[in-house]
């Protein structure tokens, strides 16, 4: 899995020099830490929260060209909103201060990890689309919730990389540079890109599109970076482009009214237009704690329900996403279904097809 990231506009000549030096020095090798380390666009190693504070981080070394090329069907697992603390807070009707217990979320996330570990063949990665914990920045139980979630996630099979997406509870409804920096220290960069088997993946900080009033310069930096990444994708003629973010662009219809669970209309329209022009096939999100989705001019919006607290009629679960030459196919499974039955034959047959 090849990875790149930039938290802002690089100083042109210096960044170009570093990139050229890296390409010549390591023969265009990208070093990816399977214990959640990534290499940034300008060559800086960024710690993405090792699963164990005592384990030695093994290195998985991949050639750029290995990941640019389509190698045949593969799949990944998408989850969202483990949100340690919300089940208790929702039950007592106090979502601000009622998150002092999260035993149920621990059990559910353990079940999710166990279900993913049992899958055969193994997924290419396991992405969590935001709201990792319920405690907002500065809240009383935040550190304890983070600690317990990491303790669960470190049991994920070492051959299955974890990808983290920032949600509003991770960086705040109106994030600041400080809250984003703190998130990055705990979970890794708030936006980045990576390649898997000829498919280009973009992880975005959707909160910057929801309310960037306290850090407008960071939204601008992400916008510049996104344009750069889409240009990279066009240059390399990737098989598909897939986006991960926490807040859905929309829940059902592209022109639906704005509310807490989607992006404001004008912002949404601008992003959808850019994504359509770039040929992005799908956006996977969470936030809604229910399954939903729709489409816009060939762009599929996939809204996945929660591992943790449910706000509708769905069941705690995960989404299996199969990427083939021609299409992206996904199924939502309850944790019980995935644990006991695994993937259905139709999806396994898709994976078995040769290039």
UniProtKB/TrEMBL annotation:
Entry keywords, A to Z: Cytoplasm, Hydrolase, Metal-binding
Pfam families named among the record's database cross-references: Metallophos (PF00149)
Domain Calcineurin-like phosphoesterase: 88-290
Keyword Zinc: no
Subcellular location: Cytoplasm
Coiled coil feature spans: none
The reaction(s) this protein catalyses: O-phospho-L-seryl-[protein] + H2O = L-seryl-[protein] + phosphate; O-phospho-L-threonyl-[protein] + H2O = L-threonyl-[protein] + phosphate
UniProt enzyme class: hydrolase
Regions crossing the membrane: none
InterPro entries (UniProt xref): Calcineurin-like_PHP, Metallo-depent_PP-like, MPP_CSTP1, STPP_CPPED1
Major subcellular site: cytoplasm
Cofactor field: a divalent metal cation
GO cellular component: cytoplasm
EC number: 3.1.3.16
Metal-binding listed as a keyword: yes
GO molecular function, one term: protein serine/threonine phosphatase activity
Family statement: Belongs to the metallophosphoesterase superfamily. CPPED1 family.
PANTHER family for the chain: METALLOPHOSPHOESTERASE, CALCINEURIN SUPERFAMILY, SERINE_THREONINE-PROTEIN PHOSPHATASE CPPED1
UniProt protein name: Serine/threonine-protein phosphatase CPPED1
Organism: Cairina moschata (Muscovy duck)
Native organism taxonomy: Eukaryota, Metazoa, Chordata, Craniata, Vertebrata
